[in-house]
Specification:
It is built from 15 helices and 19 strands. By secondary structure, the protein is an alpha/beta fold. The strands form four sheets. The chain has a six-stranded antiparallel barrel. The protein has a five-stranded parallel sheet with strand order 2-1-3-4-5, sandwiched between helices. The protein has a four-stranded parallel sheet with strand order 7-6-9-10, with helices on both faces. The chain binds manganese (II) ion. The site of manganese (II) ion has 5 residues, from loops.
Length: 489
């Protein structure tokens, strides 16, 4: 995460004289050094000397726009910086934007305070002037107020950096489609041009023949090396070695195409496996473990979302994964959802060492595929879905609590996750379905609904949040109002 840079831009003007401007810069440097030492800040904050004119502001913002490693700007008005000076620069801004309303001094120096102190420490009104112009220009932005040495402040700034990184990485994401959507399925469809305009996702199709050609090029030596890799992460729980070796071959072939085209995400489609012996199972799981985004059945939106969220969660260890709502447990007072997939559950969710097993698949008409089977972690998490509403993309997030599997499921040969959605299964499911949320989602133990809301703000998505306060009448009203508002956009 440290490779991502956030430019810290302090606004002022020439009114106060050189001595004051020198102090402004000294304070800003101390703050940047302090924040960079704080473990709550995952990325690097870069100090920029304070800007005093429209030309300087445009220059510093263009510098941020053109810095590949820059994932956003952080603005702060130590003194008063007249906001007409900011119009040209902010109009050109193409990076995520955080405005911090803070102050170098925590306390008012009661005995010593004079007009010099007042002139130097003006963020209480300087940041209001700055906030107005961003509001007037309708700029997507985050505002965080508080003293810069306060832990909550640093934690909020640090949390916001992850969606900013996600938005910047999203702009360069390429998705490799292997085949098209599953026939007749609606929710996995969508407008790829709109997705590229909003999110930057370039979604390109490859035929299954391209995968077959790539598998033909894989050597036995490469498969041996991949098998050794499997041994280091998973426990082999099968004597069907050839079936596992075939997944190794698939993984090497798919990875070679992903890396050749700089693709970060991909999908498969079990209806289109001509020339392949097995549906990619363990191969997909192991690529997901390495950070590639994946979704099944032609679902390029969820694959790209999985990749983006994995990049937002870099260096965190909770797990972020493609998921599907499968089956309900309707026991009164203990309702929960069992999430899984045919094969492809990401091992970052595993609570124990995954076991490689080979079982027949009741779907797709191919040889029994190897897959990694495990029990999942427990704890607070979110599930996120992205659907195309025709005139906009809608993101739906639900807070959930993952729970330990209460009983063994000896006849279920896939990894599974159990969770209790907020506020309860009944309301969550009703709200999710009313909003048009998909059966596919991305589950994350590492990211919060607030971070997804920030991502939606930066990228211009509609954001729908199902949480402990959700009730259906208000939720319906929100959907109705949103629909009217988005029709006017
Ligand atoms: Mn599915």
């Amino acid at each position: 995460m440290k490779q991502y840079r956030f430019h810290f831009i302090i606004g002022s003007q020439y009114l106060y004289g050189e001595a004051t401007l020198r102090q402004v810069n000294e304070h800003a440097q101390i703050m940047v050094e302090g924040l960079n030492r704080n473990p709550s800040i995952p990325c690097t904050i870069v100090y920029k000397p304070c800007v005093k004119t429209s030309a300087e502001i445009s220059a510093v913002i263009n510098d941020a726009n053109n810095d590949e490693a820059c994932a956003g700007i952080i603005t702060w008005m130590h003194t008063f910086s007249p906001s007409k000076m900011w119009i040209a620069g902010l109009a050109a801004l193409r990076k995520p934007y955080l405005h911090v309303n803070t102050q170098f001094n925590r306390d008012i120096p009661w005995g010593d305070i004079d007009m010099n102190f007042m002139n130097l420490n003006q963020s209480a009104h300087g940041d209001r002037e700055h906030g107005y112009i961003a509001a007037r220009m309708r700029l997507p932005r985050k505002v965080i107020a508080g003293h810069w040495q306060d832990e909550t402040f640093a934690a909020e700034v640090g949390a916001w950096m992850r969606p900013a990184v996600g938005a910047v990485e999203s702009k360069r994401l390429r998705v490799m489609r292997i085949s098209d959507n599953m026939r007749d399925v609606a929710v996995t469809e969508g407008d790829k041009i709109e997705a590229q305009l909003k999110l930057g996702w370039q979604v390109d199709h490859y035929g299954i023949g391209d995968i077959v050609d790539a598998t033909d090029k894989v050597t036995e030596t490469e498969i041996d090396a991949q098998m050794a890799e499997y041994e280091s992460f998973y426990k082999t729980d099968t004597d069907k070695k050839e079936a596992v070796r075939y997944q190794a071959k698939l993984e090497i072939a798919i990875k070679s195409l992903l890396d050749l085209g700089a693709f970060g995400a991909f999908h498969t489609n079990f209806q289109d496996l001509h020339g392949l012996k097995q549906l990619p199972g363990l191969a997909v799981q192991d690529l997901s473990r390495q950070g590639y985004g994946f979704a099944a059945e032609g679902d390029w939106k969820t694959a790209a979302l999985a990749r983006t969220m994995k990049l937002m969660a870099q260096d965190l260890t909770g797990g972020t994964a493609f998921m599907e709502d499968y089956t309900y447990h309707f026991e009164q007072g203990n309702e929960m959802i069992l999430g899984a997939h045919m094969l492809e559950v990401c091992p970052t969710l595993a609570a124990d060492q995954p076991k490689i097993q080979v079982h027949p698949l009741g779907i797709g008409d191919k040889e029994p595929p190897a897959r990694a089977v495990f029990k999942a972690k427990s704890g607070k998490a979110i599930v996120v879905s992205l659907v195309d509403m025709g005139n906009r993309l809608r993101m739906i997030v639900n807070d959930i609590e993952c729970v330990n599997q209460p009983q063994d499921m000896p006849n279920l040969p896939v990894a599974a996750v159990l969770w209790k959605p907020q506020p309860c299964l009944k309301t969550s499911a009703e709200a999710w379905i009313l909003a048009g949320g998909a059966h596919h989602s991305v589950l994350s133990f590492d990211l919060t609904a607030q971070q997804m809301a920030d991502f939606a703000e930066i990228t211009g998505l509609e954001f729908i949040y199902i949480n402990k306060n959700t009730n259906i009448p208000d939720f319906r009203k929100e959907l109705f109002v949103n629909d009217a508002v988005w029709r006017m956009q």
